[in-house]
Amino acid sequence: MKEVKDIDVKGLIEQNRLAELREIISDYPVADIADFILHIDKHDRVILFRLLPRKISSEVFICMESEDRNALLKDLTDEETGHLLTHLRPDDRTTLFEELPGRVTQKLLNLLSPEDLNKARFLLGYPEESIGRLMTPDYVAVRPQWTVSQCIDHIRNKGKDSETVSVIYVCNPDWTLLDALALQKFVLAEPHTTIEQLMDYSFVSLSAFDDREEAVRVMLKYDVWALPVLDSEGVLIGVVTFDDVMDVAEEEATEDFHKGAAVTPLKTSYSATSITALYSKRIGWLLGLVLINLISLEIMASFQEVLASTIALTFFIPMLIGSGGNAGAQAATLMVRALATGDVEFSQWSSTLLKELMVGASLGITMGVVGTVLGFVRGGTDIAIIVGLTMILIVLVANIIGVVLPFLLTRLNLDPAVASNPLVMSIADVTGLIIYFTISTWILTLV
To answer: Other C-beta atoms within 10 Å of 156: how many?
Structure first.
């Protein structure tokens, strides 16, 4: 099968076979065209993009990274840019405006028709991370007193401009949402049936001011492809669809991965992020973790006499604090994910803590048995008791830290993903050393 990269764009342009080039390139998938267009000469790129049918060009444009979109816009005339913006879906257009500098955004807004301008400003009025920024006002709505036959005709006329026709919304004259019906009901019902006869007044909706992660959670929970967005009075003002939600889910998952590794989330793809930006996203966390680890050094320095008197104690420090850090990281990862997916609510913190106390105690006893055996082999009975007791407490306490920290961050209205593995492990290290040296001092004093 011939690939896009095999097209001789330069040759066809030089031979002025533009109509043929337009026909050839239009047959390929949008994602392949977007990837291909970024790897040809700047002059040829602009010509090729101008040759694309308007519907295809808008889809290709959205597939590009923000930096590439901005560069392409600079090479297009105002008229071409106006046509491009007009053919973008309202939600995609809003995403574009959010990524551009303020002056550029204002210039592009001036190129829109009055109708598109009102839509863009309407969408941009919502908080940055809200569903209002994600929704599109393009949907199909019908009245309850209409017949199925009337509705089918309406869907045919309005459906081509809609984001989705898989769900049809029923509204009263004031645009208050009454119901959300699957298209299947219209297809299977008798033509003379009124919509009110099909309604059960049962639907799931979102507020325009909800966080966009709420759309992901609700769509997964209720297994729906589209969700209506309402204002405070129940008026239907837009919809969010599966494709938009999946983009959000991917972005949020990426942010959580970055935070879980103690990296400030990147605003663009890794390949498009500069060395300076990568440095700035990571250095702050590393320096912060160094400060936490300085506490560990101070603890070891204050117990240097104990270490000097029983050198065997030093052998077990990496194993003990490593075990505590790993246990804490396990618990934190489970809690962060459970809170993110709604599997665990903040109100369940006490029952969750009790559950993890039992798990931590079980893990600690198991690890303590192993530590006792290793301590006996390397240092005798006293060391075996010290290492065994320390292992039990370290694993238990680290597990508690891993559970409590995400809940605490949630209570402070912070992202629980900030409870990154490096942060939990560093806190567990400090706590583990305190436990280790306290038990060591106590046991050795008794002896």
So the answer is: 10
Contact (CB, 8 A) for 91 and 120: no
Dihedral sign (CA 109, 113, 116, 121): positive
Task: Please tell me whether residue 171 adopts helix, strand or coil conformation.
Answer: strand
Q: Which residues pair with 241 in a beta bridge?
A: 226
pLDDT in tens, the chain (447 residues): 456 666 777 777 777 777 787 888 888 888 888 888 777 777 777 777 777 876 787 778 777 777 777 777 777 776 666 666 666 776 666 666 655 555 455 566 566 676 665 666 565 667 777 887 778 777 889 999 999 999 999 998 888 767 778 899 999 988 889 999 999 999 899 999 999 999 988 899 998 888 877 888 888 888 888 899 888 778 888 888 877 777 776 676 677 666 666 667 766 666 777 788 778 877 876 777 677 777 777 777 777 777 666 677 778 888 888 888 888 888 888 888 788 777 788 888 888 899 989 998 999 899 999 989 988 887 788 888 988 999 999 999 999 998 888 888 888 877 776 666 777 888 888 888 889 888 888 887 765
Check if the beta carbon of residue 56 is closer than 8 Å to that of residue 33: yes
Q: How far apart are CA 398 and CA 332, in angstroms?
A: 10
CA distances from 223 to 134, 202, 220 (A): 19, 15, 5
How do strand 177-182 and strand 206-207 relate by DSSP bridges?
Answer: unpaired
The pair phi, psi for residue 295, each rounded to 5°, is -65, -40
Rounded distance between C-alpha atoms, residue 437 and residue 100, angstroms: 55
8 A C-beta contact, residue 434 and residue 369: no
Q: How far apart are CA 375 and CA 439, in angstroms?
A: 14
- Burial classification of residue 162, based on how many CB atoms lie within 10 Å of its CB (0-12 exposed, 13-18 middle, 19 or more buried): middle
